[in-house]
Amino acid sequence: MTDWFEETLHPEFRQGLSMDKVLYRDKSDLQDLIIFENARFGRVMCLDGVVQTTEGDEFVYHEMLAHVPMLAHGDARRVLIIGGGDGGMAREALKHPDAQVTMVEIDRAVVDFCTEHLPNHSAGAFDNPRLNLIITDGAKFVKETTDRFDVIIVDSTDPIGPGAVLFTAEFYADCKRSLTDGGILVTQNGVPFVQPSEVTNSYGRLKQSFNDVHFYRAAVPTYQGGDMTFGWATDNGMLRHLPVDELTRRYENAGIETRYVTPELHAGSFALPKTVLNLMK
């Protein structure tokens, strides 16, 4: 008989994944962490009843959060990743040969654990000499750093518990100070159909620091509720309106291999349905 993992993130909406083989389980009073094999999605990591990442569809999330801002910027040589302990975001950012990537992860154990149990996510990124891994609190880092970055990528959990600080107006203001002129901040911003307040709250808080605030979309199958949104904030309002021919030139010059993102998809991802536009108040 097949065992099933049933996600319980939303009380009125659940999804199940067959646990064809359990690879790791740490169930205690503090957390319930499990990694299992699924015939469709490969290795799946879940924490406290919520899917965190899967081998089968992680590339959608990581490509969209890395390549859209980096190619829109046009000359992103210094990139900061907040979070991203599984290494997938670093893997994608490092595909850009001129990029120096700083990654700030609060827990070294997360990096070591994911390197061991989800090695395809990082694919050697942690051994790349262009990656500077710093183990500290991400909010503290952007508040105190004197470095400036062309792109900041916030690869965070949802605004629950320790991740909540990465969705505050104070944190966004610190990110703004840590960007170069015309720099871009992008954030994980949930699935608006079932997490509408994340869009509304982030929009209001980002607008306090940035001139151009918007969202863009991607469909990640194992994140419940359909299209997810990524927050976009910059002072250069032209960067999300680049024509497809210019984006095509940039993608070709970068020489990166992608499985999901294309120049056309990049351009179209900023088109939002009315339901999301209504949340941007």
Order of helices and strands: EEEEEEHEHEHHEHEHEHEEHHH
CATH topology of the largest domain: Rossmann fold
Overall spatial form: globular
CATH class of the largest domain: Alpha Beta
Sheet with most strands: 7 strands, mixed
Count, helices: 10
What are the low-pLDDT stretches, counting only 5+ consecutive residues below 50?
A: none
Describe the structure.
With 281 residues, the chain is of the alpha/beta class. It folds into 2 domains: 3-54, Spermidine Synthase, Chain: A, domain 2 (Roll), CATH 2.30.140; 58-277, Vaccinia Virus protein VP39 (Rossmann fold), CATH 3.40.50. It contains 10 helices and 13 strands. It has helices spanning 58-73, 88-93, 108-117, 119-122, 138-144, 169-177, 196-206, 244-254, 263-268, 274-277; strands at 3-10, 13-19, 21-27, 32-38, 42-47, 50-54, 78-83, 100-105, 131-135, 149-155, 179-188, 212-219, 227-234. The longest helix is centred in the N-terminal third of the chain and has 16 residues, at 58-73. It starts with a strand and ends with a helix.
Task: Set down the secondary structure blueprint.
Elements: E1 3-10, E2 13-19, E3 21-27, E4 32-38, E5 42-47, E6 50-54, H1 58-73, E7 78-83, H2 88-93, E8 100-105, H3 108-117, H4 119-122, E9 131-135, H5 138-144, E10 149-155, H6 169-177, E11 179-188, H7 196-206, E12 212-219, E13 227-234, H8 244-254, H9 263-268, H10 274-277
Parallel strand pairs: 7-8, 7-10, 8-9, 10-11
Antiparallel strand pairs: 1-2, 3-4, 4-5, 5-6, 11-13, 12-13
Helix pairs in contact: 6-7
